[in-house]
Design brief:
Length: 392
């Protein structure tokens, strides 16, 4: 199949509702915000300045009440309040793990729920953001992939997750006091929550461009990592239109095994995927591609797999992130033994690659990779169904 084949989403997809309602100013690009302000009666001549002012209130200061926007005239604040809202997802539950990991369940329009995870480390704090409710792809080891309902998140719902986390972390700077990225609790974003970000490209791009805007949250593109299962046509666009770091859910070293573990491989097989990764234009030593590799007992964890992996990625600046499989009730796989994971890591490491083993975080609150799934939609496909889809 040609790499440019149109993407089809073959699982039930709920179209995004376009309910009429007050205009949400969160999640708009600067251009869209400007148009929105003009549409409510802002004179064109002032629109650019107003856009900048409102942008700073929202993304630099965390203000979500027009009445507090003190550099806008009172009648203008009232005009905004009458016509617009500043809406972010509503936090339903907040859990804090023994290791400090925080998991939020948030509700979005339509009553859907998604999860956000905050992982504190000594030198950084990473927010794991969701891009879809559920996922149309059905990787059989992934809990999210067993969720039937799927809808794309809007840009407002994606950047809204960052705003909600900053609220909870008390991360908005005192007015006028700068907040340098190295002093922040939320210093990095990974698009590794629920969903396939490259099946929701435009909204993910707009939300990440907001996160990077220097007059707002101002995260460097090197502090944002997008993880994809390998949606090849969108990989080049990611480099061009977002420019963030890329992680790829590799997980297997032959098409036969990858077809089962990451079914999108049937559409974009290893050779095509590797070609796209090789030409990820921004690739350089400081911008290595992260190869994620989930360690599944007796499935993809042999010494031969490690050697094949090295052959495949030859020439690509890479880091290999080994993820011990996070088991969930009914999962059709087991985690590789620690010895096996270490033996695999040693082979990779001896070839000169960084091969960290991801330490499971927040396991007591089901916040680990691949375990995210909204509580209201936790109904699972039967094991039989999962196995049938995995061709086992
Ligand atoms: N859809 C995207 C991003 C979300 S998943 C993707 O697939 O890349 C984030 C990472 O967690 C992916 O590498 C995914 O393969 C991995 N993952 C999913 N389920 C897992 C599990 N049960 N244990 C460990 N890692 C898992
Ligand atoms: Fe979707 Fe990623 Fe899970 Fe696969 S691993 S089902 S692509 S979220």
């Amino acid at each position: 199949m040609p790499a440019t084949a149109p993407i089809t989403q073959d699982v039930m997809t709920i179209p995004r509702k376009t309910e009429p309602g007050p205009l949400n100013l969160i999640g708009l690009t600067r251009e869209q915000l400007r148009d929105a302000l003009i549409s409510i009666g802002t004179p064109e001549k002032q629109a650019k300045m107003r856009t900048g002012q409102i942008w700073q209130w929202i993304y630099q200061k965390g203000v979500r009440d027009f009445a507090l926007m003190s550099n806008l005239a009172k009648p203008y604040r009232e005009l905004l309040a009458e016509n617009c809202v500043l809406a972010v997802p509503e936090v339903v539950t907040r859990q804090v793990s023994e290791d400090g990991t925080r998991k939020y369940l948030v509700r979005i329009a339509g009553g859907h729920e998604v999860e956000i995870v905050y992982i504190p480390e000594t030198d950084r704090g990473t927010l794991c953001v969701s891009s879809q409710v559920g996922c149309t792809l059905t990787c059989p080891f992934c809990h999210t992939g067993t969720q039937k309902l799927v809808r794309n998140l809007t840009a407002a719902e994606i950047i809204g997750q960052v705003l909600v986390a900053r609220d909870d972390l008390g991360e908005w700077p005192e007015l006028g006091v700068p907040n340098p990225p190295e002093a922040r609790r939320l210093s990095n974003i990974v698009l590794m929550g629920m969903g396939e970000p490259l099946y929701n490209f435009d909204n993910v791009r707009d939300a990440m461009n907001i996160a990077m805007d220097p007059e707002g949250i101002s995260l460097s593109r090197r502090r944002i990592t997008l993880s994809t299962s390998g949606v090849v046509p969108e990989i080049a666009r990611t480099a061009e239109e977002i420019g963030c770091l890329l992680a790829v859910s590799f997980h297997a070293t032959t098409d036969e095994v990858r077809n089962k573990l990451v079914p999108i491989n049937k559409k974009y097989p290893l050779e095509v995927l590797l070609e796209a990764l090789r030409s990820y234009p921004k690739v350089s030593n400081s911008e290595r591609i992260t190869f994620e590799y989930v360690m599944l007992k007796d499935v993809n964890d042999s010494d031969e797999d490690a050697h094949r992996l090295l052959q495949l990625i030859k020439g690509i600046p890479a880091k290999i992130n080994l993820i011990p499989f996070n088991e969930w009730p009914g999962a059709p796989y087991k985690r590789s033994s620690n010895n096996r994971i270490h033996a695999f890591a040693d082979i990779i490491h001896d070839a000169g690659y960084s091969s960290p083993i991801r330490r499971p975080r927040g396991e007591d609150i089901m916040a680990a990779c691949g375990q995210l799934k909204s509580a209201t939609e936790r109904e699972r496909k039967s094991r039989k169904q999962i196995e049938a889809e995995a061709g086992m």
